[in-house]
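Lab channel / #folding
Pinned by the channel admin:
"Please post every new chain as: sequence first, then the C-alpha cells as a reply. Keep commentary short and put observations after the output so the thread stays searchable."

First post following the new format, from NK:
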Amino acid sequence: MGTAYGEGITTMKSSQWDKENYGLSGGTMKCSIDNIAAVAAEVANGDVLMLAKVPSWGVPMSIKVWNDEIDSNGSPTLTGEVGLYNGPVPYYIGTTKTDAEAVLDIDCLCDEGELTAAILGANNKGTEVFDLQTNTLVTADKLDQQFWQWAGLSEDPQADFYVAITFNAANATAADGDVGMVVKYLVP
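Reply from TO:
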C-alpha cells in the first residue's frame, strides 16, 4: 500500500513553505463586495463594470453576481465575461509596464456562456459564476492558482487587481439596474 501526495503537498514537502503555496494548506478567507447602479448606457458592447478589488496573490474561491433585469432578452441579447484588470497603480514585470486599470485578461474567470446565462433577466438570488459544475474555465488542476496566474502573468506583481464584467455584444433592450458582485478569496 503506497502513499501519494497532491501537487501542493509535494511542493511544500520539497521547499520552504511560502506565500505562493499558502492557499494549498490554509489561509484566511477574505471577501470583496461591490455594486453599481448601472444605467443602460453602461451595459453596452465594450463597457466595463469594475466590481471587486483583490490582491494579485489571492486564490479565488467564489465569484457571485446579482443583478436587476438589465436586458429584457431582445435580440441581440446582452453578453459578458468576468476577467481581471490591473488596479489603480501601474506595475512592472521586468521592464514591461502595465498601466493602471489596464486589461489583464478579459475572460479568465468566467467566459461569455456562463455569465450571459446569469445576467439575462433579474437575478436577485445571486449566481455563482466561478465553479467546477458550470464554468468550463475552472478545472481541478487550477483550483490553487492565484489571481496573477489566472491573468496569465509570468510572476506576481504584488499589486491590486479589479475583477470586472466586460460586456461584449450590442444590447437591443438595455435597461437601468443594479449589478453586484461578491468575490471570496484566500490570502496568507
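NK: The CA atoms of residues 76 and 163 lie 25 Å apart.
TO: also worth noting, The mean pLDDT is 82.
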